[in-house]
Design brief:
By secondary structure, this protein is α/β, with parallel strands linked by helices. It is 57% helix and 13% strand. Bound molecules: guanosine-5'-triphosphate and magnesium ion (MG). The site of guanosine-5'-triphosphate has 19 residues, from helix 4 and helix 5.
């Protein structure tokens, strides 16, 4: 992407154009190096509060977000939602449904998009961080990030957010195991969703015990379907965002910057190194030699990393 195109994106985003904002995020999703130029020129801000909502597929993350967003907007917030699309046909469908619902109804103060968790050179966390940062610079004060699962993926996401909340539900049945496995050391708060379903009280009680033992934030119960508990969650998010703006966690901002620079440097390093080694063509030739048993895999790798 050339300078004048990048310039157009920056001018558009600064004027509040959603078209340029969408384009910028798509471009960054494909090529993170574009973000270097964008972030160098869009004004910095520490006003955006990033909240990660994670949990197993079907636990109700999108339903909760769909309930929260209009309420947060009513309270004067501009809200962006980034959904990390796990590229599965089932969840992808659910995400698209929510995108339509949230995106069309709420106008200028809401932004929704999914980010593919495949393909990006810096991994999902890198791309999410950059998209969130661009949204923050575009004036969104609350950035909600929906991610699936409780494995490596959202451990990364907890690094990229100011707070990460884990949704559990009595239906999924593995909530108590997750609590026992120490998930509270990774996430900041547990929400028991589907509190209209049997077993929710017991799950909440166990979450409370664990939170007390580990000095964690108080778990909360919610029904994203019926609306119970939504008021309380909205109030907690608004209060957390207020505190965050009043005294931003500069340590977290710095660590994020360190990770961002490191990730980009790794990408550039790899790109440069592979270029010096002759790129894909050279690797293909080495692979042919390995398959003809002329050299070993170790020798092929050594020849790549020692090139230049
Ligand atoms: N009974 C009940 N059902 C709920 C509640 N919240 C969500 N659901 C239902 O649970 C199903 C999954 O909800 P989603 O919001 O798509 O869940 P998700 O966590 O976003 O799922 P993925 O994006 O696929 O990981 C839907 O059928 C919702 O209607 C709730 O509080 N109570
Ligand atoms: Mg979802």
């Amino acid at each position: 992407m050339d300078d004048s195109e990048i310039n157009d994106l920056i001018v558009g985003i600064s004027k509040g154009s959603r078209r340029e904002l969408a384009r910028a995020i798509t471009v960054v999703e494909e090529d993170e190096s574009v973000a270097d130029a964008l972030l160098a020129r869009l004004p910095e801000t520490t006003c955006a509060f990033r909240l990660g909502l994670t949990g197993a597929p079907g636990v109700g993350k999108s339903s909760l977000i769909a309930k929260l967003v209009p309420r947060l907007i009513e309270n004067g917030e501009r809200v962006a939602v980034l959904a990390i699309d796990p590229s599965s046909p089932i969840t992808g469908g659910a995400l698209l449904g929510d995108r339509a619902r949230i995106g069309t109804d709420l106008g200028e103060d809401c932004w929704f998009r999914s980010i593919a968790s495949r393909g990006a050179t810096g991994g999902v966390a890198g791309c999410t961080d950059l998209a969130a940062e661009i949204l923050a610079r575009a004036g969104f004060g609350l950035i909600l990030i929906e991610t699936v699962g409780v494995g490596q993926l959202e451990v990364e996401i907890t690094d990229e957010t100011d707070q990460a909340w884990l949704l559990l539900s009595p239906e999924s049945g593995d909530g108590i195991q997750l609590l026992k496995a120490g998930v509270l050391e990774v996430v900041d708060r547990v929400l028991v969703n589907k509190c209209d379903r049997p077993g929710a009280d017991e799950l909440l009680r166990r979450a409370e015990e664990m939170a007390h033992d580990q000095n964690g934030l108080e778990p909360m119960a919610v029904s994203s379907l019926q609306g119970d508990g939504i008021d309380e969650i909205v109030a907690v998010i608004l209060e957390s965002a207020r505190k965050h703006r009043e005294s931003p966690d500069l340590g977290a901002v710095r660590s994020r910057l360190v990770r961002r620079i490191r990730r980009r440097a790794e990408q550039e390093w790899i790109r440069k190194g592979l270029g010096l080694a002759g790129g894909t063509k050279a690797i293909e030739q080495l692979a042919d030699r390995v398959s003809r048993q002329e050299i070993s895999i170790q020798q092929a790798i050594e020849s790549i990393v020692s090139a230049g």
